[in-house]
């Protein structure tokens, strides 16, 4: 009878795992639960049960007691995860951080925070932030390049919440000691693996919830106390409190996240000792870090036989800590066997909570909507088609664009002898598959300039023309637990669940044409700003589109050509071709990011144009010094129209250089952007509005364009 019961339970679990478990793990992995502030994870676990099923004590532990009498057994999984708190709010609006509790393992743990989205849980709700990172454009100007430095430390971290002062921070409801973590971006790999920060502990909590549901459907032999505990990484008192209140116990089966070995994904379970029952694929190991011990021994545990259970994982203690679904099944099976598995009801889970919709900045909703649509398109250099197609759908009905041999989208309108050209590039920094290893790993080559370690141990997306995008993860470097430099010494690799080169090729992965990026979306940052990967040059593309709204091309005093170009990040490829075709142009206005040093880790002696003070004329850049009279013309036009603009000097170049080969002067126009070529580029919508007005004034001569950046909505 017992064998039949176990068989039915396991069949039910297999069906659950195949159908719902990966999605449930992914949903729970999004919760924030910095040790001592586990309320969000606690609410999620409670939502898996009928109201009132779980009891919550004063420390936040969740407890379910099943049965009565002996034997008394305790099953435990933690709610908490490693994280940080806001340790300082500076007068200029930047935040400093400090780790709280334990669990921040390895020399790269804090570096995985640098240059990424952050989630602060304030008393008024979650708030967006980004972890600042130096601009890669300035690295050749630094006395010590970033790539030569030791791994990033938490003492060097700054957070940007879109604030210019401490008062701005307070208006967002952010206070000292509010907890924070990376913004969670869990990845499901082929329905076999789930990768996310602290995924082992997250998976254990879900496995225990499913076991609790099964055991609650029928009486159990003796007493089983099931607990999800708080404070494990801080002082371990959540577990101690449960033991003292509900003990004594004869047996304790406690999940321990420090039991470590790399997962094979074939139904393994880790334990610190042999279990009192037979379980296939059991791997014995010892905790990597000893647990905190109480001052006095816990008398309620004195007679208990305590078993530590663990999950294997790939990339442990990174943002892509990956747990195999089959291994989570094995953990649940271990708890069921320890309970005697008296129930015959298959395991089940409730419906997943509804996913929250991405908010849009209220200060400029139409511009934000258009920009969010552009950011949502992926277009590594030479693979810009999704971006080009999106832009083409936004053009007004009168527009007759063409796609040239270089893949540029070109639109000419107006009339007259004077010819103005405006260029914004469609491509973004990313990677291409350079080779496929026999074990299925994809070896990458960087396209464009960027710090590769910002992609290390982060979610990835594989893009192959004509196929759906494939979720994946950028792997951490070999021996990442012993890293001594910020930069990896080997090319980045990607794991997408493939176990052989043949499997990867059968899935459509192609060397040289499959590109790789990181998932992205436009995230509001305070009342006026937003952050996203690829704002360079999605903002420029959007600005050109916005100038076309309500424009009558028959009334223009000159000919105008808009070029949305390809291959800018790898050598101005598209603009080189466009310049050959547009040699009659009088002036070219490349529209691109002004790489501003308005950031906490940069020197303001170079490239300083503050965010929020208007568009920028890139008077001096690495490859151009704009003509004085043309700069004065732009400035005078802006002054007449009361358009706030700035002038600046910065590193890098623009598409305009290729037009200079034919004697066409270039006047680069920009918006000031922070953290260029990183996953968290930042803009201020007020600068985007200024840029759109300035472009409209140049196109129409006088008066300036009457509509602002809030005047357009993207088409589906």
Question: How would you portray this structure in words?
Answer:
The structure is a single chain. This protein is α+β, with helices and mostly antiparallel strands and 716 residues long. 23% of the residues lie in helices and 24% in strands. It contains 15 helices and 35 strands. Strands 18, 19, 20, 29, 30, 31, 32, 33 and 34 form a 9-stranded mixed β-sheet that branches. An 8-stranded mixed β-sheet has the order 1-2-12-3-13-16-14-15, sandwiched between helices. Strand 10 (187-189) and strand 11 form a beta hairpin. Helix 11 packs across helix 15 (685-700). The radius of gyration is 28 Å and the shape is elongated. The N and C termini lie far apart (58 Å). The model is unreliable at 1-15, 342-346 and 702-714 (pLDDT under 50).
């Amino acid at each position: 009878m017992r064998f039949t019961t176990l068989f039915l339970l396991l069949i039910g679990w297999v069906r659950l795992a195949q159908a719902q478990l990966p999605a449930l793990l992914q949903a729970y992995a999004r919760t924030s639960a910095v040790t001592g502030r586990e309320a969000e994870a606690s609410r999620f676990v409670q939502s898996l049960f009928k109201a009132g099923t779980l009891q919550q004590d004063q420390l936040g532990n969740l407890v379910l007691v099943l049965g009565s009498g002996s034997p008394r057994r305790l099953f435990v999984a933690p709610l908490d995860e490693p994280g940080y708190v806001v340790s300082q709010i500076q007068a200029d609006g930047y935040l400093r951080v400090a780790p709280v509790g334990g669990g921040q393992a390895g020399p790269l743990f804090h570096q995985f925070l640098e240059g990424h989205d952050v989630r602060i849980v304030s008393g008024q709700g979650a708030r967006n932030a980004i972890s600042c990172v130096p601009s890669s454009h300035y690295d050749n100007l630094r006395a010590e390049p970033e790539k030569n430095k030791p791994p990033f430390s938490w003492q060097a971290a700054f957070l940007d919440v879109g604030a210019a002062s401490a008062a701005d921070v307070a208006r967002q409801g952010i206070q000292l000691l509010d907890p924070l973590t990376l913004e969670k971006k869990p990845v499901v790999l082929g329905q076999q693996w789930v990768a996310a920060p602290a995924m082992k502990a997250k998976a254990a909590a879900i496995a225990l919830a499913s076991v609790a549901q099964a055991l609650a459907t029928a009486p159990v032999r003796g007493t089983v106390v099931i607990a999800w505990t708080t404070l494990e990484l801080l002082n371990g008192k959540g577990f101690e409190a449960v033991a003292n209140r509900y003990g004594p116990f004869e047996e304790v089966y406690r999940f321990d996240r420090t039991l470590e070995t790399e997962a094979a994904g074939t139904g393994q379970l880790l334990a610190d000792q042999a279990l009192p029952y037979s379980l296939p694929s059991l791997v014995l190991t010892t905790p990597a870090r000893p647990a905190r011990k109480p001052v006095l021994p816990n008398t309620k545990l004195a007679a208990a036989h305590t078993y530590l259970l663990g999950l294997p994982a790939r990339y442990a203690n990174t943002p892509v800590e990956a747990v195999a679904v089959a291994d989570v099944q094995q953990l649940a099976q271990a708890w069921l066997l320890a309970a005697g598995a008296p129930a015959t009801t298959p395991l089940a889970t409730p419906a997943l909570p509804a996913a929250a919709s991405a908010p849009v900045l209220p200060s400029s909703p139409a511009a934000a909507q258009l920009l969010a649509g552009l950011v949502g398109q992926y277009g590594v250099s030479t693979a810009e088609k999704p971006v080009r197609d999106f832009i083409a759908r936004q053009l007004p009905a009168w527009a007759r664009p063409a796609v040239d041999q270089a893949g540029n989208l070109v639109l000419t309108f107006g009339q007259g002898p004077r010819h103005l050209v405006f260029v914004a590039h469609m491509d973004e920094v990313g990677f291409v598959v350079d080779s496929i290893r026999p074990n299925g790993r994809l070896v990458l080559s960087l396209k464009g300039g960027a710090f590769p370690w910002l992609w290390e141990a982060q979610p990835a997306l594989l893009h192959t023309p004509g196929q759906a995008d494939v979720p994946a993860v950028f792997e951490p470097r070999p021996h990442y637990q012993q890293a001594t430099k910020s930069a990896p010494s080997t090319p980045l690799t990607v794991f997408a669940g493939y176990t052989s080169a043949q499997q990867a090729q059968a899935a459509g992965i192609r060397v040289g044409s499959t590109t790789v990026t990181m998932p992205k979306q436009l995230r509001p940052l305070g009342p006026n700003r937003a952050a996203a990967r690829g704002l360079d040059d999605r903002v420029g593309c959007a600005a050109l589109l916005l100038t076309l709204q309500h424009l009558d091309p028959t009334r223009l005093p000159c000919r105008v050509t808009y070029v949305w170009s390809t291959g800018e990040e790898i050598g101005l490829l598209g603009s080189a071709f466009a310049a050959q075709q547009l040699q009659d142009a009088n002036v070219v206005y490349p529209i691109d990011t002004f790489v501003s040093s308005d950031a906490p880790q940069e020197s303001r002696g170079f490239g300083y144009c503050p965010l929020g003070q208007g568009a920028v004329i890139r008077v001096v850049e690495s490859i151009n010094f704009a003509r004085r009279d043309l700069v004065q013309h732009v400035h005078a036009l802006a002054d007449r129209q009361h358009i706030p603009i700035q002038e600046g000097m910065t590193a890098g170049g623009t598409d305009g250089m290729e037009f200079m080969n034919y004697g066409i002067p270039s006047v680069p126009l920009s918006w000031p952007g922070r953290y260029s070529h990183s996953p968290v580029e930042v803009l201020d919508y007020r600068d985007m509005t200024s840029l759109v007005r300035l472009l409209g004034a140049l196109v129409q001569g006088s008066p300036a364009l009457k509509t602002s950046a809030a005047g357009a909505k993207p088409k589906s």
